[in-house]
Design brief:
There is one protein chain. The protein is an alpha/beta fold. It has one domain: Ribokinase (UDP-N-acetylmuramoyl-L-alanine:D-glutamate ligase, 3-Layer(aba) Sandwich), CATH 3.40.1190.20. It is built from 9 helices and 13 strands. The chain has a 9-stranded mixed beta sheet, sandwiched between helices. Helix 1 crosses helix 8, helix 5 crosses helix 6 and helix 8 runs antiparallel to helix 9.
Amino acid sequence: MDLICVGDVMLDVRVDAGELARGGDVHGRVALQPGGTSGNAAVWAAATGATARVHGRVGGDLVGRLLRTELEVRGVEAALVDDPDAPSGTMLVVFEAGERSMVADRGANARLRPDDLPPELVAGAVLVSGYLLLQDGAQRAGVEAIRRSRAGWIAVEAATWPLVEAIGPDRFHELASGASVVLANEREAEALTSLGPIDAARELGERYRVVAVKRGASGAVLVVDGSVFEAQADAIDERDPTGAGDAFDGVLLASLARGIDPEASLHRACRAGAEVAASASVWPSAS
């Protein structure tokens, strides 16, 4: 197995209504599609030819069955546990007057337990979602996922800057103890270091073997064993950046796990992120 992802799988509900009518009805575009940080990373890793598996928790409902099927048709092993008491996670993404707002109901994702994971997670790389690790509920499962990992690259993604700010750098590093890779965007890296992206990557690189700081349209910086690599993002007409960072994570880790050199891995990851941001869909088409 090249990549194992532990964490969230969700149904994304996307609403583009132009400008919502307060207290009334409005016509717009509503789209349903699979998502979630771990699912996003795994399907993009699989799209590059890597083998991938997702460990997560879904409801015993229509959404859970859909998520399982959509992972499998994209070549990802869906090691999903059915929760008898909680619904599958749902993310509402609303585009209004050019602005994006998101509302998450994590549902069964927040109830992942250590017992839902195998005794060992054996792969070239393991990615643990920060949404597990940095919040109550499934935190023990996140910590256990790191502890049980038997991989050349054990990664934690920082999830979102408000969670990082809420727990602080010291607690973040405590929870991520045992990880060799940290993946963050600029805002998350700043929350961990109070530094800009390149300096933040260098500082975090003194603690972790690999650090990637994602910079959106400005590309990304990668530190591997003290060596710094930078890549520019492809020029695109951005449609929706949701999930672009997850695609970056999955492709980067799968590439490193398959022995591709760091600089080439970084460029492959940036291309995947740009492809998502230029598309209306987070996941690649099923073959």
